[in-house]
Amino acid sequence: MSGNKILIDTNIIIYHLNGDKTLEALLENKQIYISFISEIELLSQKVSQQSEYLIEKFLSYVSVVHSNEKISFEAGRLRRTKTLKTPNAIIAATAKTLGLPLLTADKVFIGLPTLDVIEYLPNPL
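Now predict its structure.
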């Protein structure tokens, strides 16, 4: 990965919070961005107090990107033309609008035009 800014998908956050050492190395010295959708997905999980603390601590270190007119327009276009679910369309639109690579383990993003996707293959447990 080149550059020091990256948008990460919710699944990457979960792998990272679960102690994935490969991700830890990939994300080191990166300015990490997440969509507000990922923030909502994280905060809506029923987790232990310790996990809740880790999520809150993680969220304090990243930049959460909220929607705006450009992201909304692009998300609508992606949803309409690529049959993405709304949360995925918003995450993809956020990466595209900001010109950031998207690190994800979700294959639905692979092959989307004009989107720099970095596919992560998690180590099997």
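The domain at 5-119 is CATH 3.40.50.1010 (Rossmann fold).
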